[in-house]
Amino acid sequence: MTALLAAGCAVLGLVIGSFLNVVIHRVPRKESVVKPRSRCPGCGTELAARDNVPVVSWLLLKGRCRTCAEPISGRYPAVELATAVLFAATAFRLGADWALPAFLVVVAGLVAISAVDLELFIVPNRILYPTLFVAALLFVLAAAADGRWSDARTAALGGALGWGLLLVIHLVSPAGMGFGDVRLAGLIGMALGWLSVGHVLVGLFLAFLAAAVIGVALIVTGVKGRKDKVPFGPFLATGAMLAILFGGPLLDWYRV
Fold it and tell me: By three-state DSSP, how is residue 234 classified?
């Protein structure tokens, strides 16, 4: 049953990932995500339905527009595949839990925010706030459906904890930690807090660990200099996903 749920969420993830590509491209430009329909950025031709099938269309078209042969960024299938894999993994981890829809919303938000942050070095409020609002509503509904009000309270505590810890870092070093990351930590803290306060701490620790390791690697390889900016949002998202998937075993190992 869990495998079927994970497979269904993977298919859903492909569809949501296709929509996230629209969000990633249009929201920073303050364009509508509803209309017009998707178009080729090169020639402006409206894409036919057959050219909008997640991953498959990109492969069949060999990464180029059918009309003008303009290259189509590999980001599009990457986002779709990443969303599908993360949806499936989250479903496999949580099973048929009332809170699963809330976590899938958070995962989708993290994918979109990470892609925008990698490209533009911003955590867009127009993605973050709707994700936070919808996820919070779904967590409340999950608590009501399953009588898990203690988990809802812990989620609220986790959100405050994540927001507060990164706020302190932001106040100490505004140049090193943007306020967008502080807001994002609040969203992540809420989701991880539903699982436990320990998951919040694990997620933040793994985010900073990943940032340190990859940051050093980028400097050593010459890809980045010591003064170059590196977006922190994707590391927060990475830490959050690792905590969702492996936080329980890590906390059990630490307590032994």
Answer: helix
Segment 161-169 long-range contacts (CB within 8 Å, at least 24 positions apart): 161/189, 161/193, 161/197, 161/200, 162/186, 162/187, 162/188, 162/189, 162/190, 162/192, 162/193, 162/200, 162/203, 162/204, 163/189, 165/204, 166/204
| Cis peptide bond prior to 249, omega within 30° of 0 | no
Give the whole-angstrom CA distance, residue 205 versus residue 200. 9
Angle ∠(191,193,194) on CA atoms, nearest 5: 70
To the question of pTM greater than 0.85 for the whole model, the response is yes
Cross-strand bridge partners of residue 71: 64
Q: For the chain, list residues with pLDDT below 50.
A: none
> 162-189: per-residue pLDDT in tens?
999 999 999 998 888 899 999 999 999 9
Q: What pLDDT does 256 receive?
A: 64
Q: Is 229 exposed, middle or buried (0-12, 13-18, 19+ CB in 10 A)?
A: exposed
77-123 pLDDT per residue, tens: 999 999 999 999 999 999 999 999 999 999 999 999 999 999 999 99
Identify the residue whose tokens are 């950025």. Answer: 41
CA proximity to 73, closest of 21, 34, 19: 21
Q: Which residues partner with 64 through β-bridges?
A: 71
Beta carbons within 8 Å of 252's beta carbon, 6+ residues apart: none
